[in-house]
Amino acid sequence: MIKVFGHTSPDTDSTGSPIIWAWYLNEVRRTPAEAVLQGEPNTEALWMLNRWNLAMPQIIADVAAGDQCVIVDTNNPAELPASLDQADVIEIIDHHLLAGGIKTRSPINITIRPLACTATIMHDLIGEDMARAPETIKGAMLTCILSDTLEFRSPTTTEHDRAVAEKLAADLGVNITDFAAEMFAAKSDVSAFSDEALLRMDSKEYELGGKQLRVSVLETTAPQVLLDRKMSLMAAMPKVAADDGADEVLLFIVDILREQATLLVPNAFVKQVAERSFAATVDGDTVVLPGVMSRKKQIIPVLAV
Question: What is the average per-residue pLDDT within 6-17?
Answer without folding.
Answer: 96
